Structure formats: C-alpha cells, structure tokens
C-alpha cells in the first residue's frame, strides 16, 4: 500500500509549506513496514478478536475479580493496537466506585482528584494533561462540561459500563482520538449474554472526619443500581436496561490557603513593610535592614461541606434478525446536582492593606528568632467571615444508533450519534464582619508557632468575638470594589453547553492484496458547538445603590438571616454563619458587572470536522513469525469559527463596573493527514512484540479559541501601557509523531507481564506567549491612550514548537498459583511508569496561583506513577488491597473566578481495601455482600510554591467506608 498520493496542505501556521507530493516521515515509515511484511507474505486465516466475538454468544458463568482480570487480558492480548483494559467483574460491577478510579490502576494512567470531593475525576495518560486524552462512549466522541474537551468521567456511573479500553496507539477507523490516548467506555450488548440477568446493587457509604477538630463532621451516602438484560424472538432481539441513583452528604473538609505562600518582610523598627523593599536603582548587593523580619502574609481557611445527587439511566436495544443485518440503539442519560458550602475566615496579617476599607495593621508583642516573628499580634485587623455557596447541575445525554449490513463479501456500517452536556452553575460569595467602620477595626490578630515557612500550621486567635450577631453584620468589610464602589458579596451564574452530532459511514470487505487481508474505509462527519454564557456581578444590600447604580452608602450593613455559630476553618475561631442560597432578591440585589474581564468569559466555538479514513488489516509472516495488525490513514478537514466580545474601553465606569461591548467573530480552516500502523508479532509461547507508529493530534482547549481580546491599562510603577489577553480563533491542534514498542508475555488467559516504551515528538504545541501587540483596532476613537500609545503587551495562545515526551511502563498481572498450588486464589496486579519530557513552557503566558518560575514543565506530568493491587479469591471470598501513587505535578484547576489556573500539586498516595463474599448455594445463591475502605491514609491534597516549597493550599477529605449487597437472578 502506498501513501504518496496523500496530499498535505501547505502553508499551515508555524510550518513551512510542503510540496503536494511530499511524503510525511510517519507515512513513509508505515508504508515501508507494510511493504516489508508483504515481501514475506503468507496467506493465513484472520484471527481478529472483534470478528470472533461478533457471532459468539457469551455465557457469564464465572464472576469476581479473576473474571474481570481474564476478560481484560483477553481484550489486551487480542487487540491489534497497544491497549489497556478494565472489564466488569460481573454485570454492573467494575472494580471501583467510579470510572476514573478503575482507569487509574492501568499502566501509565493516573488521575487528578477533585479539589472539592477528593475523588478521582479526570485522567492523565503518559504524563500528559487530561485534554490530550480522547473520551468516547461505544466508540463515539463525548461532549464535556468544562471549557476544555476533557471528559469528566464521574458523569458516567461505573455500574452501567461493561468495559473500558484505552488505546495507546492510533487506529485509523477510530474517531475522536487523543494525542496521549483514547479512552473508550463500552456498555453491554444484551445478545452477547446467554440468558436473562437481573441485578440489584445497594451500597451505603460513610466518611470519617477529615480532621479531629471542631466543625468537622462525618459524611454519608447511598448508591442503588438496577440492571436488566434479556433476549426475545429466538435471540433476535436483546434489551439491556440500567438505572443508578447515588447521593452523598460530605462531612466538613478543611481548606487552608496561604495566599500563594506569601511571607512578607516587616520592619519592626518603623512598623512598615516599605523599608524592607529594595529601592529603585539599588545595587544587586542590597540587603534589607536587620530590623526586617518574616511575618505571615494572610490566610483563607474554610470548612467545606458537600451535597451531591446523581441519577443515570441506560437503555440498549439490539436487533439481529440474521447474520446479514444488525442494528443497535443505545441511550445514556445522566443528571447530577452538586453543592459545596464554604464557611470560614480570611484576612491579611502582614501589615498591608487588603482593600479600600483597610489601612493595614501595626505589629505589637513580637517574638523574633533568626529573622522570623515566631509569635506576635497585629493591631487594626479586619477579618472577613466567608459564607459561600457553589452549586451546579449537569445534564448529559448520549445517543448512538449503529447499523451493520452484509451483502456477499461486502460489509456496510452506518452510525448516527448525539452527545450533549449542559452545566449550570450558581455561586454566592458573601462577606461579613465589623460593620460601619471604614478604617479602625479595633481588633487584633495574633499567632504562634511560625517558623518562616509553615504557613498552614500557624495557630491564630483574635481579640473580638466573630460569632456575636450584635457585632458581626453582612457588609463590605474590606472595600474590595474600591473607594468608588460597593461589594457586599459576589454572584456568578455561568452556563456551559456542549453538543456533538456525528454521522459515520464505512464500507469494507476481505481482500487478498499482499499482507492486506481486508480493508475498511469511509467518511465521518461531525459538528460540535460549545457555548459559555455568564451573568455575574456584585451583591449589594438595599440602600447601597440608587436606581442608576450609583453608590449611595458603600458601608451599609444588615443582619444575617437565621445565623448559626460555626468556626473559621482551621483557625477554630468561632464565627457567625448563614446559608446564602436563594438570597438574591430577598437579601441582596445584583449589580451586574460588564468589565472587560467579565465580558471575556462569554464566548462560543463551532467546529465542523470531515474525516475520510482507510484502514487495511494485516495478516502476514516473516521468517516463520506470524504478524497481524493494521495500517491506515485519516484525512481530516476542519472548519472552525469562534465568537466573543469587544469592550468599548471609553465607556467603562470603574465605580459601577459597567462597559459597552459588541460581538466579534472569526473563522479558520485547515487539513491534517494522520497515518498509522500497528503490528503484533507472535514470537511463540504466548510472547508478543508490538510496534505502533502514527501521527496524532489533540485539538485546543475551546476557551483558547474564543474571539475575545480583553485588555486594560497597566503601569507597573512606570509608564502606562495596554496589557491584554484573549483567545485565538486561528489555533490549530497540537500535533505529534509517535513511536511505541511493547513486549508482552502471556500465561494463557490467566496473566501476563509486559514492558512498553514510547516516544512522542510534539512538533506543534500550543504556547501562551506574551508579545508586543498594536491595540489600535480595539481602541475606541477619542477614548485616549496610555503613555505607550496603542502599542502594548498581549498574552495569546499560538501554535509553536513543543518538545519530546518519552517513557517506559512495566506491568505484572499474574496469579500466584503459577508459583505453587498452595497459593491458588492469590494474585497481584502491579505497574510502574516513568515519564520524562523536554517540554518547557514560558510561565508568563499562563494563569497560575503558584507559577512564579521563568518556565514551567508539561502540565499533568508526574514523572513516576505506581499501582499495586494484591488480591485473594476462592470459595466465594474476595479480598483485595490496592495502593496508587503519583509524584508531584503541575495540575490544572478552576479557581474562584471560574478561570483555569495552573498549580503545583504535591505527590500523593492512596490505599484502598475491599472484601466480598458471594453465596453459591441454597436460597442465597446469587447474593453477595461487600465492604470497602477508600483513602485509608487520609491522603492530603496539597498545592505548593515551586520556588520555596511552601504549602499554599491544603485539603484533607477523610477516609470513606462502604458496605453493600448485590443480588443477581
């Protein structure tokens, strides 16, 4: 097979034009390898696992850990590509509570925990961020809730899935592939079961206190699932129905944020911080005066409680009246409601002002040791009581209709799919404290136990009673809206909608063309739209503004409705709390803001992608070694458009935070050629050597594609200039050439050991760079310009050069009965991956709470990931203990402003255990009981400063325990 007639579009951004007939190096390598196998071609009968399973009826007679292991091993062994797999131990029984947790136990795979729940939510494969992993359901691309493309796997209940396959090398017939991997979640097919099956599953979960301190409680939850599988009309019609309901009320979870690890120097002689700052023009050898000492900078600490509910339903209708025709319709619906309530305390400590209503404090009663104020007090302190609610609901609908027709030697596939997710969020942030006093707080903040860096361990106390309703009021405590504005709280109501519609048509047949024994080709057309709309602004109390939005009294205050006494996070200081949910209109009014940065949060992106694909299946022999695999190519054409808004800077009112703005849009088109090759050599004795070659793409974060350019005037204590950021509608994908090698030794269907290596050359990478930009076309005539004129600096995502990623993965999955019959029932699943990357990104182009180094590593990359699971299963008894660990990494989170932030996250390890017993006799046959313990080490989630190692944010989530019953009949 030759690929010289495949044309590559010239003149793509960041690349020199190519000749129309120039062969891409990956395509040339694929062609050469296929021709080599053709020279030694020997006709053989295809032995594809998917073809064998096509007409075979599976009768589920063995359940449990080993059943799931054997099924997953069969998927891996029989695949042409390099894959990893998880298979259900029985109907509705993946080995973990969530899809993400099950996936995270596979080689080269790890998860990023939710910063709210502490549970696995998104996955990283081979050291790359979640956005580089393609998320599919039954081979169909899935919509996502965030501004990125990464699928949140907790929306897909584990009880409704039969298996999960991670493709680590590309396949030309697979759509929606990722650059690091492609994760395909697969539902059951009812005609693959030999008889009717009904399964009822119930589990109760409890969570221990995250810390044994006041304000922290226990959590509890319930999970119920029902599954029904049946066959009718002489096994021509199959039905699978599933339903899950889960709800969970989380106990108090601590959060302590150290304001980015801020440790200011304070001059104890002059009671100022300015004397400790390097003067302009001072030589590099300048040092602060000896009277300067380190003090804590400030803190934000909360106790977070959560409330979560999710209902999901699955329906699969499979119709196969003959071997020539099959039609399958599957529908998945999932709806979740989530709420997190934050009750806490925050404020500056280091003597500096934090707002227009705060003059800063004065240090008294200081204890100084080695340049550190280990204990002391600041007068004139203004604490802010936080009563925040963050609520959201998400609704997922995924529909797929696949049809297969056979006519003689020809096989036709026709597939329609629809995936839609809508997420609606509502955030209340309210502030309370000492009312009606703009400057003189008449309070002190005191601390002990500070060593200069242990900010999260310092003990704080205050002079006033922050739980006294006669003293504490709802008000603008610090003056965060400025001297000309009012902000008694903040409200945000963003809505994100993502929709994918796709049509796939494929035609194939068996052939005899050298090493190619069959081919499959066709067309896939997809349309994706993602829109984000936000409404947000300041919460103000009645009497603060007039009818035109002008400030009347910015120090207005009001009593808390139905207050309760709580604690200010990890400080333990008593505080006055209330529930602000639903308070818009009854307690607060909304002053909508339309500042340039707020307007920039509303955007839309549309993509129309047409993919022509051709794949040939390989059966050959070289020197007596049997080869199988596939070779193929995708020709992918993309038309994308984006919308956003342009703000009229001249119309902006700093007091009311209002600006006039108008819509803008832009579009772009490009083409990619993606060759791929997978070869598996049977070395005999169940030894398999695999090779994967391919060119891969990962499409940009969709927020990065918005048409908005957002800017303001900045001075940096010098001449003023325009400073901005925005999206780039002309962004093209990340692109990489990949090489994979894997050696696997199988022990029948019981176990295997493997070693795999991979190398990816990221020749196109999306960088966020800061560069000189002319804002002339964005400046309203007559609005004036800063000192630098219309020239300024802008941070935009652009296509640039990347680097390399390489790594090695070791895996062992064996039963101990191979060593001795005395160990029958025992087994181990263990894997280790080590990944390295040359990618270094300019930190100036990224938003990051702790990203203060000149360059940053590849986001999502943990150099080392380790998984271990020991199990015993015999006589109906199942026991398992598992540990998973990842090293420190640069993670991506959503901050309090709904913006994506990069943060350095400490490495962590979690330990889980499981015990179950299944009855196989009498009237209890089919009944099983289960107990699990998760996160038994109460692993801490911790963010840190990369320069000094200081912890900047820490959370603990407690241990969770689960008991349940399962009945199958």
Automatic annotation (TrEMBL):
UniProt keywords (A-Z) are: Cell outer membrane, Membrane, Receptor, Signal
- Asked if the Swiss-Prot or TrEMBL record annotates the protein with the keyword Disulfide bond, the reply is no
- What SUPFAM superfamilies does its record include? Porins
Signal peptide range: 1-42
What Pfam families does the annotation carry?
Answer: OMP_b-brl_3, Plug
List the InterPro entries hit by this protein, alphabetically: Beta-barrel_TonB_sf, OMP_b-brl_3, Plug_dom, Plug_dom_sf, TonB_rcpt_bac
Question: Where would I find the TonB-dependent receptor plug domain in this sequence?
Answer: 77-178
Cellular localization per UniProt: Cell outer membrane
Domain (Outer membrane protein beta-barrel): residue spans on this chain: 643-849
- Give the family from UniProt: Belongs to the TonB-dependent receptor family.
Please state what the protein is called. Answer: TonB-dependent receptor
């Amino acid at each position: 097979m030759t690929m010289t007639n495949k044309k590559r579009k010239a003149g793509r951004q960041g690349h020199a034009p190519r000749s129309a007939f120039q062969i891409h190096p990956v395509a040339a390598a694929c062609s050469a390898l296929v021709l080599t196998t053709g020279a030694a071609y020997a006709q053989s009968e295809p032995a594809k696992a998917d073809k064998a399973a096509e007409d075979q009826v599976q009768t589920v007679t063995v359940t449990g850990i080993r059943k799931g292991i054997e099924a997953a091993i069969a998927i891996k062994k029989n695949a042409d590509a390099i894959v990893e797999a998880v298979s259900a131990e029985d109907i509705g029984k993946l080995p973990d509570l969530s899809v993400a947790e099950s996936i995270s136990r596979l080689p080269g795979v790890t998860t990023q925990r939710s910063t709210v729940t502490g549970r696995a939510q998104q996955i990283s494969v081979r050291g790359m961020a979640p956005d580089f992993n393609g998320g599919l359901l039954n081979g169909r691309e899935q919509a996502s809730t965030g501004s990125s493309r990464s699928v949140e796997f907790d929306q897909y209940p584990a009880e409704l899935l039969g298996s999960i396959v991670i493709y680590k090398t590309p396949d030309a017939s697979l759509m929606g592939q990722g650059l690091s991997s492609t994760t395909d979640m697969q539902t059951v097919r009812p005609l693959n079961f030999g008889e009717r099956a009904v399964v009822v599953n119930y589990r109760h979960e409890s969570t221990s206190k995250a810390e044994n301190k006041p304000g922290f409680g226990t959590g509890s939850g319930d999970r119920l699932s029902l599954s029904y599988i049946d066959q009718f009309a002489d096994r021509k019609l199959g039905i699978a129905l599933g339903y899950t309901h889960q709800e969970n009320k989380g106990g108090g979870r601590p959060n302590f944020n150290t304001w980015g690890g801020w440790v200011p120097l304070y001059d104890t002689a002059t009671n100022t911080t300015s004397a400790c700052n390097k003067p302009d023009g001072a030589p590099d050898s300048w040092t602060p005066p000896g009277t300067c000492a380190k003090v804590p900078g400030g803190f934000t600490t909360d106790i977070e409680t959560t409330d979560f509910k999710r209902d999901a339903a699955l329906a699969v209708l499979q119709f196969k009246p003959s071997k020539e025709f099959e039609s399958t319709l599957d529908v998945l619906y999932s709806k979740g409601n989530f709420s997190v309530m934050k009750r806490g305390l925050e404020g500056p400590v280091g003597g500096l002002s934090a707002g227009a209503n705060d003059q800063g404090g004065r240090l008294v009663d200081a204890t100084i040791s080695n340049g550190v104020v280990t204990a002391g007090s600041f007068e004139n302190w203004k604490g802010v009581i936080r009563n925040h609610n963050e609520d959201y609901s998400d609704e997922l609908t995924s529909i797929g209709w696949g049809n297969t027709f056979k006519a003689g030697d020809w096989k036709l596939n026709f597939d329609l799919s629809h995936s839609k997710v809508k997420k609606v969020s509502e955030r209340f942030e309210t502030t309370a404290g000492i009312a009606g006093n703009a400057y003189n707080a008449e309070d002190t903040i005191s601390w002990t136990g500070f060593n200069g860096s242990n900010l999260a361990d310092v003990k704080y106390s205050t002079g006033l009673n922050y739980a006294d309703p006669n003293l504490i009021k709802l008000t603008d405590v610090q003056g965060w809206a400025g001297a000309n504005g009012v902000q008694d709280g903040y409200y945000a109501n963003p809505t994100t909608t993502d929709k994918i519609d796709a049509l796939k048509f494929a035609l194939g047949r068996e052939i005899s063309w050298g090493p190619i024994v069959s081919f499959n080709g066709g067309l896939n057309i997809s349309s994706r739209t993602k829109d984000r709309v936000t409404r947000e602004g300041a919460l103000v109390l009645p009497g603060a503004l007039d009818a035109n939005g002008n400030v009347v009294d910015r120090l207005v205050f009001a009593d808390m409705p139905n207050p309760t006494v709580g604690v200010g996070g990890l400080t333990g200081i008593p505080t006055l709390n209330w529930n602000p949910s639903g308070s818009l209109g009854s307690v607060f009014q909304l002053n909508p803001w339309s500042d340039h940065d707020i307007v920039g949060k509303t955007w839309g992106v549309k993509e129309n992608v047409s993919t022509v694909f051709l794949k040939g299946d390989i059966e050959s022999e070289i020197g007596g070694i049997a080869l199988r695999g596939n070779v193929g190519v995708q020709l992918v054409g993309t038309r994308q458009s984006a919308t956003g808004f342009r703000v009229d800077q001249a119309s902006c009112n700093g007091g009311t935070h209002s600006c006039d703005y108008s819509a803008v849009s832009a579009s772009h088109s490009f083409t990619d050629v993606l060759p791929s090759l997978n070869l598996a050599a049977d070395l005999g004795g169940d030894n398999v050597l695999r090779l994967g070659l391919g060119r891969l793409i990962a499409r940009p974060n969709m927020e990065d594609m918005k048409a908005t350019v957002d800017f303001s005037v900045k001075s940096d204590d010098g001449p003023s200039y325009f400073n901005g950021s925005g999206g780039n509608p002309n962004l093209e994908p990340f692109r990489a050439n990949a090489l994979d090698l894997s050696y696997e030794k199988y022990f029948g269907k019981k176990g295997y050991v493997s070693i795999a290596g991979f190398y990816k050359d990221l020749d196109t990478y999306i960088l966020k760079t800061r560069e000189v930009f002319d804002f002339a076309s964005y400046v309203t005539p007559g609005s004036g310009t800063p000192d630098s004129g219309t020239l300024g600096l802008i941070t935009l995502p652009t296509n640039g050069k990347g680097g390399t990623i390489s790594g090695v993965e070791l895996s062992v999955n064996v039963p101990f009965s191979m060593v001795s019959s005395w160990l029958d029932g025992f087994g181990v699943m263990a894997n280790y991956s080590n990944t390295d990357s040359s990618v270094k990104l300019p930190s100036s182009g990224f938003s990051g709470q702790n990203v203060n180094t000149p360059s940053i590593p590849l986001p999502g990359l943990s150099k080392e990931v380790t998984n271990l699971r020991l199990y015993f299963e015999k006589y109906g008894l199942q026991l398992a203990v598992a540990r998973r660990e990842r090293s420190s990494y640069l993670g991506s989170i959503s901050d309090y402003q709904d913006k994506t932030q990069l943060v350095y996250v400490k490495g962590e390890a979690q330990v889980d255990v499981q015990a179950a017993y299944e009855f196989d006799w009498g009237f209890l046959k089919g009944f099983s009981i289960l107990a699990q313990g998760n996160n038994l080490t109460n692993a801490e989630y911790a963010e840190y400063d990369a320069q000094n190692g200081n912890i900047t944010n820490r959370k603990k989530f407690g241990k969770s325990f689960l008991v349940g019953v399962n009945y199958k009949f």
